[in-house]
Amino acid sequence: MKKRLYLELENCIGCRSCLAACTQCGGHEQRNRNYVYDVNPLVNRQTMPLMCLHCVNPACARSCPAQAIQIHETGAVLSALVEKCIGCQNCTIACPYGIPKFDTEQNLMYKCDLCIDRTKDGIPPMCASVCPSNTLQWLTDEEIEAKQKQFHLKNGKWVTSMPYLEGETNVRVNLPGILQGVTKLY
Q: Which of 9, 28, 115, 120 is the most exposed place for a label (fewest CB within 10 A)?
C-alpha cells in the first residue's frame, strides 16, 4: 500500500529533529536535505518544515539536460545521479519551491530523495520517523482522507496539499487553520 509524506504544518514546534535525522539517513552523506524556516522571526516562534514535494511532473527533472534526476517508481524524485549531473544548476533555478541545492565542492545537485532506501520498503523517511509533534507523518491515502474528514470547514478553502505551483505532488500538506487565519483547529 502506497504511503505519502504528510505535513501538518500547524504542529511544527521548531525542534529541528527532522533536520538532524535527515543527516543520518543512509546515502545523504551527512548533508541535510530538508529545511525548517522561521516564518516571522521578529514576531513569533512559528516555524515550518520545507521538504521536497516530489512533484509528479517535476520541473527539476524536466529542466535537466543530462537526465540526471530520476523519478523512482514510488514517485520519489531522486537527487541528481553522480555519473550524469553536469553541474549546470538548471534544476535549482527551475524548482518553484527552491528545494534542490548545489554543492560547489562536488559540482553536483542534491535534494531530498524521500529516504528512498527506506521508503521503497515501506519504512518512514527519517524526518517522519523522529518528528515528536506529528508534523511529518508517513500515511496511506486512506489515512490522509480520514484526516481530511476531521475538518468541517464550510468556507470551501480546504486543501489537502498546497496550491500547486508545479502540478500534482506526492507529498500532502495540511493547511486548514492557516487558510482560515485562526488558531489551531484540533
A: 120
